[in-house]
Amino acid sequence: MKVDRKQVEYVAELARIELDEEEKAIYSDQLSTILAFFDRLEEVDTKDVPPTSHVLDLVNALRPDDIRTSLSVDEGLKNAPDRKKRFFRVPRILD
Amino acid sequence: MIQRKVGYMQLYEQSIHSLHALLSSRQVSSEEVIRAVLERIKVHNPLFNAFITIDEEQALAQAREADQRLAKGKDVGPLCGVPVAIKDNMITNGIKTTCASRMLSEFIPPYDSTVVAKLRQAGAVLIGKTNMDEFAMGSSNEHSFFGPCRNPYNDAYVTGGSSGGSACAIAADMTITALGSDTGGSIRQPASYCGVVGMKPTYGRVSRFGLVAFASSLDQIGPITKDVTDCSLMLQVICGYDPRDSTSAQLPIPDFTAFLSDDIAGMRIGIPKEYFIEGLDPEVEEAVRQGIRYLEQQGAEPVEISLPHTAYTIAAYYLIATAEASSNLARYDGVKYGYRSQGTYDNLRLMYTQTRAEGFGAEVKRRIMLGTYALSSGYYDAYYRKAQQVRTLIRQDFLDAFNKCDVIVTPTVPGPAPRIGEKLGDPLQMYLLDIFTTSTNLAGLPGLSLPCGYTQNGLPIGMQILGKPFDEGIVLKAAYAVEQKSLAIRRKPGV
Lengths: 95, 495
Known about the structure:
The structure holds 2 protein chains of 2 kinds. By secondary structure, chain A is mostly helical. In chain A, about 35% of the residues lie in helices and about 5% in strands.
């Protein structure tokens, strides 16, 4: 499976990572090599084999909806790169 | 500072159990031990780079608290007053937790992970946070924003990864005990390269609350220690159900140290033929076979077993791990915490893409790209779903094999530690080093690595012991039996 430059750009866009030209070339090569190796999975007959998303015998974990203490707003905002009063601050969303 | 020796050993050379005897009988104080270890770190960390953060003041304050507990003699467990190093992906209240990433290089968590809270409660003293591959993605500890970690047995070689700092700190006596995390071998592989003991418990045995997520269906926290007894003592303290981690298991917890005896007569040792193949370093094979002979000498019975889907492990693992990583790491957006690009952007989208471009290193980006690709429309079935189906088959291989044996013994890694830089240019070659460790995580089993020999060049070799789900006790028992026979050949690094 050859991952060309256009596909690299598309995937980077989905992943919200800006890549420079050099990175695009490297990742195109490396992803192609790695995915070619992954293609060996095609040899395995998986007809009627259910997928495993995790190994636990567990479907759901429920708990009573009790009120408990949580972090204060100040503690929650302490690591924010930018804040205004009680809020996270970000650049504008709409053009 | 003059280091105080007790008997023939320096304080920093002690194990948890030997130190506990000294502390509880008041022959030494925790403060003395902490000062000895901090001094040791000061001398050796500049070269080996095992620690990212060291908090002397907090450590000494905790040591004095532990000394008060020890003086009263009440509520004094084996970890009371003992220094512990924590891999820097487990959050620590008020102490920087970086994941060895620029993205979190200034992050100070406002609460403790469950394992850290449990260690504090047991009186353990947090001396620092250890180096790792960024976000636990790597097999060499070279992918760290803070630089590579160096192997105490030879500083031109890697420590392995991703818990390289914790393994290095144990090997070089810069701590008494440590925690690592293991998603595809990140505890066992550096333990093997650094000649120490490391265990990945069963998926669900230890709470991951406060462990920075990499691949949530695979991640597990475990001990990295100087010997098997210490490993049992650590596991005892950190394991158990936690309502804040819904994947932690509500199962009874055995007394793990009660398993430690060399009475292993009749234990069936599964030896998977697919793990002793071409490409396995001959020195590694010989050392592991010697480890198996130690078990046989004590009455264990080797049984040949087959794990037929072994050749597909790396592909299935790297598809699942990167897919989960791409989803987990979506949270690093420069908004709530962590790094934000200072570049010129005038909208939110560019802030995201530039923040992530600058905040993540090359390997993390590569894995996010791979995972995003595998999950993207049109490829999901061919890659991600297929990998999950193969995971079912790999797990079934193990469950079938365990009908014929009690534990499985393999090499931990196909070869000894590579040189720093040797595999860095070829990501696939680096991934292939995980061939013997990733299957354990896919199947959710407990696995332990312990030293079983050394190469001609003096690098450590590890053997891996795997058990049935939640059967850590038997794994520890087999490991203890090997350790008793191999103590005579154990070598310390010349540090």
